[in-house]
Amino acid sequence: MQVQQTGDVTRDWYTRFAVNEARGQSAIYEAWATGVAGDDEVLDLIRELPRPKQQPNLVFACSRLLGAPEGEYAPWREWLLANWPAVADAALQRATQTNEPRRCALLLPLLAAIEGPIALLEVGASAGLCLYPDRYAYRYDDDPVLGESDVLLECATTGPVPLPDRLPEIVWRAGLDLNPLRVDDADDMRWLETLVWPEQVERRERIRRAIELARREPVRLVAGDGRERLREVAADAPDDATLVVFHAGTIVYLGRDERAAFADDVCSLAAERGRTHWISIEGQGVTPGVQPDGTGGSSTFALALDGDLVALAGPHGQSLDWLA
Ligand SMILES: C[S@@+](CC[C@H](N)C(=O)[O-])C[C@H]1O[C@@H](n2cnc3c(N)ncnc32)[C@H](O)[C@@H]1O
């Protein structure tokens, strides 16, 4: 939807967030973002933050972490004005690292079609909850559930999705992140849960269950830049496994040139190693070479295998529209 822009970067960011992201997903965030966009006093505070930290999702989550009332704009605004130094401090220290295990429902059809065993390496893994595609249960549309797990991932599909009848064999897994979140750290997990929008109760519950699973089967998470440490971590994958490098909602945080360099790095790693695939789950137009379809509707993400667009998808793995 086209949103009226004023040329005021921060104000326009909040307006776009209200209309394009929060509407239909969170009435509370839509009300807060709409309120902020028309509130010069609050905007002046937010503008004190460095530009990337002015992100609506970050400011809202920090306020909730610190106890802001979750409801209408006026009481939230009053709370924010009274607690701004603490909110600003939290925003400076934290980043949005939403981890959505349901994105495994997008990975699964591709993983199941790749000859295993598989070594799985995620760049931008957050707490690593997308590194367990073989540990979750799945229901695509009304099909029978595949897999046995406390964590059920449901996904609505259209088009000729190559739905798997078995889970992939994953023999090695690792994640890379600038700031891995630890599932055994209460503060990290409180932050992860707070990043889920207020009304998304089901999503929060699913993430809690996935965190429990990850605590039982800890995965290797390496702190570092995805480009700088990709080869080093990939080198630990067993030679006789097919390496799958994937990223979801991550390279959007890189500049355009960095994204292209990252794509080149993955392709040259694949060419040198052989038996390596690259899966990208990013907003349409983000991954270099993966062209947006432009007809996505609510399917704002693009799923690509080795640089080829195969499907459009809901950003949280809730839907998968396979292309013919
Ligand atoms: C929005 S989260 C997505 C997490 C996970 N991929 C998922 O789909 O649930 C993006 C993650 O990418 C990480 N990240 C951003 N830039 C990165 C980089 N250059 N190298 C490694 N990780 C990065 C962030 O720290 C964050 O945890």
Automatic annotation (TrEMBL):
<protein>
    <recommendedName>
        <fullName>DUF2332 family protein</fullName>
    </recommendedName>
</protein>
<dbReference type="Pfam" id="PF10094">
    <property type="entry name" value="DUF2332"/>
</dbReference>
<dbReference type="InterPro" id="IPR011200">
    <property type="entry name" value="UCP012608"/>
</dbReference>
